[in-house]
Amino acid sequence: MSSYRPTRRNVIKAAGGISAAMALGTGGTLAAASPASAAGDGFGLRIVEHNEGDPRMWYYRFATDAIGWNPGVNVLLPDDYHTGGRTYPVLYLFHGGGTDQDFITFDRAGIRDWTAGKPVIVVMPDGGHAGWYSNPVSSNTGPRNWETFHINQLLPWIDANFRTYAEYDGRAVAGFSMGGFGALKYAAKYYGHFASVSAHSGPASLRRDAGLVAHWANVSSAALDLGGGTVYGIPLWNEARVSADNPVERVESYRNKRVFLVAGTSPDPVNWFDTVNETQVLAGQREFRARLGDAGIPHEWYEEPGGHMIRDYMVRRDLDGIVARLRKA
After folding, report:
1. Residue 177 CA from chain centroid, whole number
2. 196 is catalytic
3. 9-325 — its CATH code?
4. Global pTM?
5. 82 part of the active site
6. 3-state class of 156 per DSSP?
7. What are the structural domain ranges in the chain?
8. 8/273 Cα distance (integer angstroms)
9. Of the listed 198, 221, 308, 318, which one is catalytic?
């Protein structure tokens, strides 16, 4: 039993006694197979860099008006993608936050081995150091509209350029930490897009403990991505935006989906980052699970030893469940 523990190098302190740390991660590679992908034409995307030399992991950077710099995307293809004409389901896999986290985190962690032989395409996009898979309320560094990039641009581009099932039963979304929150958020807000959602050490409650996670999102995004701008607004939140993004307030949106949750039960007592992150994650996931249970919505959950980390054995279990839930290749 092994795990991948991203390093956490950023302590973010805000006035009023609020302290927050970011430790969230993922990665991947993208593939193109048509003149449209080669040109990067359509959906508001233009390819500015690419590498298709690896038979499984293909990489692209896009220019897009949604983001003020060129975000990267990795697409991990099935072993037999180039040898047959099958159509595949797709997993969108999201990284966490922090300056040491980016879209190749899951590649470093071992996603190639974990998906060997599995009939699924895995798309791993950039999400910013602290983008929170959101369009921020304010930014002082140019556009950082990650939600627009992922949902309105990248998702249709993938369906147009790969042999995918462009339908509800053809897509899953999952992530680690900040990416786990993003997965839960997108699965609820865009109900018809994803039939399976997974949060590996991902927060599921923005408002608990006086809104600690929402404050965390604001402070981290202000420090790392937005030059003092915020995801939800300071000093007052955009309450409608918080409610729209908050998994525990969107419970009915998880009905008829596969829901997979993992949290750690024993944060590192000498690692402040780990303790704050996973203690809040565990409490929020328990709140979310209780609401799912009250609503009679089935869900799969695990409380595992250790703290804020990617657990390879849990990712492998999750992948098996995703493949079982989605339309078969």
Report:
1. 8
2. no
3. 3.40.50.1820
4. 0.89
5. no
6. helix
7. 9-325
8. 7
9. 308
